[in-house]
Amino acid sequence: MISCPIFCEELNLKMDFNRSFTSNLGSATSAKSQQSMFKALRRLHGQNLESRGLHDMTEAFQSFVTRARFFSIGKLRRTWSHSAAEFMKYRRLLPMLLADGEAFDGGETDDFDASIAFQHTSRDDRKIVVSNISSRVTQSQLQSFFSQYGKVTSCILPREEKKTSIFGTLPKHSKNCGTATITFKKAEHAERAKNASPEELKFYDQLMVVSAYVSKKRGGKGLVLSDDVGSREDTPLSRASSTQSLASGSEQLFNLGSIPEKVLKRVISFLPIHETIRIERVNKKFMEQSIKSWELINRLVLARETVFSKQRPMRTNHLKAILTRAGAHLRSLDMSGVVHLLDDRRAVKMIATCCPNLVELDISGTHAQAEALEELGESLTHLKQLSYRGMETTGDKAFYFLLKNCGHSLKFADLRNSKRLHGRSFRLFGSQLESLYLDGSSKIDEMAFEDLCTSCGGLKELRINECYKITDENLSMIARRMEDLSILTLCGDGFKNLTSAGLIHISHMKNITELALDYNTLVNDELLISISAGLPLLSSLSLANAGDDASITAEGVSAIKNLSGLTQLDVSSLAAVNSAVMTQLGALKKLEIIQLRNCTYLGDEGVRTMLQMPNLRHTDLSGSILVSNDSIQEFIKAFPSGPKLPPITLVVGGTAADASKLSVRGSRVVVDFSDYSTIVAMQTSQTSGSKFVVGSVSDCEDNSDDDFEVLTAQRSFYIDAVCGEEDSPITDDGKLAEWAEKEARSLGLIKD
């Protein structure tokens, strides 16, 4: 039952509308009459919404009022699902309602919609997107870095999926994705960061790129619009907000049909994949330009498409729709990491049929039969980079057929964690191969390494972490045949067929610039001395958790000082690293990154030695329990801030540092209180049962009581050193070192 006042109000509104509409018919050019008509429409529709639809209005009239509100006064509420088709359907109402296209007073538009649009724009102006971020940067470090431009209210730095590894090359903490979103308190702070010079944005030896924030609804295909956000205000059609006006009070309507085809094609290329396909339904022109827009896309990373998730995984028909449009233009296709329920055989055949010009291909996670992989290899005649990692159930036969026709032309191959790969297909590689990743492929045998040395003499990068079947003869052959080898990683503690004498062959590889031997128990003083004398070009050396306390002494670590070109050094968890050794390493003037995690014998004097390294950019002291506030404060003061001077990161988590007593004012040192010194157990099928690490849990029941006592002693030493209290604490560094050594001897950690 409708009350009398409501009925009278409705009647008055209808009469008001009829009068305004009649006046429009008599005088089509009267702007005042148009304003009156729109006022009547808004009042009538608003009254209907307030009374929850109780007015006796016909469905046709209600539909007309709704369309007039949302399509005539320029407040088109666009949604990416059906906006384009709906707009093209109802836009013919605009000339009728605006009296043949005449402009109307912008002040008559909805103030609520305008306020919402302003709030969205204001919020976006305070945000920036930072890309090309080093994988070593943490969220707290990034936030501290950009706080120099203004107060940061939010810093979002996504990380990759957590991986389990025993090596320093794959730390416990996963790497970041390389792109972050930072929100400042004020818009001028964001502008200050955008206007920063490239040198000011250099962090961890990488030039970060700052760009304007673009909402996900406006991004596409992993691209970011490079235009200034401020220019959106002058554009009639904009992706800045779903409430952005189609027209303003001083401009005429914008005709979508007048957009040049080249511009439309460029705009469509920035849309997400599923929207690019969906926009083909608008009209013929949009369909043609949508199809042509794929010409501008030569690299496709499917994991970036947010439309595919656990609730809605990618299926075979989705892949077919994408590759039939983009396949002919693609040069790079990455299918790793995408959530899918693909028919692997059909998916591989689609790639072979639709993408003949691929140069880079990553099909990690896509299982297929040998016949389908053979067809894929035959069709990709231009392939230079291939990634097929994590295929734990794929055997030698599948790899053989995959590499049968394209292996000879490859320059890069990533076959990590292929547990059933024996390496019979390595003879198919050609002399053009430059980089080969085999980490975690533990069944690659001696014959495979011989084939590799015979076929790939020009190899420059070889990563064979956890390839435990390599022998001394293989390493000798690599040193003799691969003269151009510059990067070698040989991490792991289960090399049963390799000896310390065999590792000496590494010192004969004269062109090595990067060497990693983390957790390798065969490393000793003799090897370190040979490397220091035989590898003059070495710039990066990683020895985290290598050897043991007896095999690596101060003599071997001190020999590293002869590597004058060294820029990166990791000697984490080496008991031989102390203040005296660090004094010797002070001769490394080019050192930029040094990792000293869990160096429990390193004191303040060793930290002061690093003040002589002018190029230092990152120092990690986490877990070095003897380092105190005194040396850390001296380190901070030794590097004052200045124009175009890069920041220096100092990690002090797990040390004796007190954050409340440190001052970083006037310094370019960024102090990070995170602790990266967590010691994890070595959990691999090839490791020996007698290997114990602090905090580890062994699954073997045959471990002796002696091993358990050693573990208990190590834990007691750490706990007493960190948590122990004495009535008269030792302040002298010399006496403190003597006390630590005495305690270690009494616990059996140091033997004479």
TrEMBL record:
InterPro entries: F-box_dom (IPR001810), Leu-rich_rpt_Cys-con_subtyp (IPR006553), LRR_dom_sf (IPR032675), Nucleotide-bd_a/b_plait_sf (IPR012677), RBD_domain_sf (IPR035979), RRM_dom (IPR000504). GO terms for biological process: SCF-dependent proteasomal ubiquitin-dependent protein catabolic process. Gene3D superfamilies: 3.30.70.330, Ribonuclease Inhibitor. PROSITE patterns: FBOX (PS50181), RRM (PS50102). Keywords: RNA-binding. GO terms for cellular component: SCF ubiquitin ligase complex. This is RRM domain-containing protein. Residues 126-215 form the RRM domain. Residues 225-244 are annotated as: Disordered. One of its GO terms (molecular function) is RNA binding. The keyword RNA-binding applies. Residues 253-300 form the F-box domain. CDD domains: RRM_SF.
